[in-house]
Amino acid sequence: MIKTLMKQIKEYRKDAIITPCFMVLEVLMEMIIPLLMGYIVDNGVAKGDIHYIYKMGFLMVIAAAVSLTTGILGGKHAARASAGFAKNLRQSMYENIQTFSFANIDRFSTAGLVTRMTTDITNIQNAFQMMLRMCVRAFFSLICAMSLSFFISPRLATIYLGAVFVLGTILAIIVSLAMKYFGQTFPKYDDLNESVQENVSAIRVVKAFVREDYEKKRFTKANGNLYNMFVKAERIVSMNAPVMSATIYTCIMLISWVGAKMIVNSELSTGDLMRLFTYCMNILMSLMMLSMVFVMISMSIASAKRIAEVLEEKSTIVNPEHPDYEVTDGSIAFEHVNFSYHEGSREWVLKDINLDIRSGETIGIIGGTGSSKSSLANLISRIYDVSEGSVKVGGKDVRTYDMETLRNQVAVVLQKNVLFSGTILENLRWGNPTATREECVHACKLACADDFISSFPKGYDTYIEQGGTNVSGGQKQRICIARALLKKPKILILDDSTSAVDTATDSRIRKAFREEIPGTTRIIIAQRISSVESADRIIVMENGEINGFASHDELLATNEIYRDIYESQTGGGGDFDEVEMSDLSEDDASTAAEER
């Protein structure tokens, strides 16, 4: 874990090394000042030598100035090192998350990843800065002050040594107890963030179902759990302050009593006692700083483990050693494919799938909810890897391709359409960053999106709000289809991506595909018979198995499941959004008639 995190210091290694050097120099100057004070008392004040007092005073000013300067420089480099360390951690975590397969992402919740990249990294940043400055300063100050105290008076220094032993023991107990609670606290942040994230992202649903009170109770519960865990941890940590104060005052009283007796017996000078009092405060303040550092470290250990988990996570889907960089055509073959979302599980989501799809074919996939239609399509673009068997694209196993090459040639319009903040044009260019405006317009015409985009005051420069909240579901789907078309793929997968589009528009989209991209293999996953009935062949899925694979007419004659779906959707007069022929334009009416 430590090795994983320390790799992220990178270009800030110099600052991380310089900071402790400045801290050591600052402490050395601070240790010199009490010595000079003792000399002033013993050799200047006692003998009335004003020249000696001025001389020592001047040296004290120089030592204080050097201490102040090195302290400022140490703080500057520590801030740079810790902030840079946090920046590199965030960057590395984000970059590693981008390589994750869906199986990896399933291990971490979205809220959990956000917490790790914010709260956890802030904890690490604070702990790292405290270690560079406060820990080094306190430890070196403790060693120097203790050594000088033993040099001045071993008898009085023994009091310090006893205090260090007592405080160290108590501190170790406090830290060990606090770590247990802090380890349980940060997962509670995930629950809290998850509550907020779900509420904000689904605020329309919350208001539509009048569930504000329920969501408040849910948040209150998560917030209360976090509060309770922090109270338990802080209650233990708070014991540090009274123990520290009691030790400091005890040391001062013991040194005053023993030191005064030693001065009376001429075993100690007044200047030496002043030095010892100063070093006493240095030692005890160093212990206090070290206790704060250890408490911060105990908090950050839990965060460090959570961050290291993300950094050390390896994608379950990786490029082969010598990948193929060319997909020759859009043919697809499934050979005895079994698939489960959980590694090692024998509960198959897909069972013994065998398919042979020719390049340029239009294939429909239909079946009930939970029949694994989307799971089948996910294997083609290698979003998941098969558990057994193989999936081939262009005659080669998908595991032999460079992943970027494969996914550029297998465009997927997912069931859950996502648009990002930015203009429509910027969203379209996710499919092809170098696409011209004319290419974007052409793709939108194929997806039947140009009409409504042109009706916007700013057209293709219309700004899309986060999540695409300022466009309808059907408009969002058509923009996503156009975005996929800009990739000019050899395989196009539409995963129920026209569910929010009326049947007339759906038929126009399918006609455009048939005429404009005849060489592209088109896989249409749908719930509506009208969306797939014109396909060359249709796959009927049931419980993760292929129940039928043939044309529309053949399935009507031979497949009971397909026939039941067809009759249930057409027996009542067609789809609910299917319009009358008289209401369509001549071209649309012709298209709809052809589809039927």
Give an account of the 3D structure.
There is one protein chain. The strands form 3 sheets. This protein has a 6-stranded mixed β-sheet, sandwiched between helices. α17 links the parallel β9 and β10. The chain is built from 21 helices and 12 strands. The longest helix has 50 residues. With 596 residues, it is an alpha/beta fold. The C terminus is likely disordered.
List keywords for this structure.
alpha/beta; 6-stranded mixed sheet; 4-stranded antiparallel sheet; 64% helix; elongated
Calculate the mean pLDDT score and round it.
82
Give the termini distance in whole angstroms. 62 Å
The main sheet orders its strands as 6-9-10-3-11-12
Report the uncertain regions: 573-596
Could you give a quick summary of the protein structure above?
The protein contains 21 helices and 12 strands. It has 596 residues and is of the alpha/beta class. The longest helix has 50 residues, at 50-99.
